[in-house]
Amino acid sequence: MITSQEQLRSLYAMPAERALLKQQIDLDRYCLRFIALSPLCIVATGGGQDSLMDASPRGGLPGFVKAPDNQTLLIPDASGNNRLDSLSNLVDDPRIGLLFLVPGIDETLRINGRACLRDEPHYTALFASESFRPRLVIEVQVREAYLHCAKALMRSRVWKPQAQVQRSVMPSMNQMIHAQIGLTAAPEAQETMVARYQAQIAGEQGGDHLKKE
Questions:
Q1: Is 47 in contact with 73 (CB distance < 8 Å)?
Q2: Mind listing the pLDDT tens digit for each residue in 70-108?
Q3: In this model, does residue 213 exceed pLDDT 90?
C-alpha cells in the first residue's frame, strides 16, 4: 500500500518540463476557444465536515459556459433532481474543479479554482431566454488551467462510432431506480421520460437544441 508521497513518486518518472509549464493561472485564447466549443463540463466539488467528493455533469449548447474575462467563468444552473449536491458543497467549500470536453477532440481542458453562487439579476439575466431563467449562476475564479493529453479518451475510443452502445443494453433509468428502492408501481417508460426531458430542455434553450440535432 502506498502511504507516502515518497513511495508514490518512486513508482513514476518525474514529469516532463512541458507538463509542468503548461499550467496557467488564467485562460488564454486556446482555453477560451475550447470552452466556447464545449457542450459538456464535469464539475467536481467537495464539502465541509469530511463530506465525500462529488462529480456532476453540466451540459448545454456549445458555449453554454461564459467567460466574461480570462480569469472568470459563469456556469448557469439548469433543472436537475434538486438534490443540490454540487451547490450545497460549494456553499461550504468554494474549491471547484472543471473538466471540459468537446465531441471529436480527444484532449480535455482542466480548470481549478474557487466558486461562489450568484443569484443577482444581472448574473441570471446573462442566460435568460423567453421561457427560462436560471435560479443562480456558478461564478468560478480561475486559479489553474491546463490542457490534458488525449490518452484517456483515445484509450476509451469514446467518440468513435464503433464504441457507441445501444441504450437497450441497460434497463431504463426508471426501471433501475424502481428496483433499487423497491417501488412496486409501473415505472415511466423510457420513451416517455425522454420526451419529457426534451420538452423541459426545449423550454430552457428556446428549442435551439432541437434545431441543431
A1: no
A2: 999 999 999 888 999 999 999 999 999 999 999 999 999
A3: no
Distance (Å) of CA 200 to CA 80, 126, 182, 205, 209: 10, 19, 27, 9, 11
**Dihedrals phi, psi of 97, to nearest 5 degrees:** -125, 135
- Domain 12-154 of CATH type 2.30.110.10: yes
d(C-alpha 190, C-alpha 132), whole Å: 25
Q: What is the rounded CA–CA span in Å between residue 128 and residue 122?
A: 10
Does the pLDDT value for residue 45 go beyond 70?
A: yes
Task: Identify the CA nearest to 32 among candidates 83, 122, 102.
Answer: 102
| Ranges of each domain in the chain | 12-154, 165-211
> Diameter of the chain by CA atoms?
59
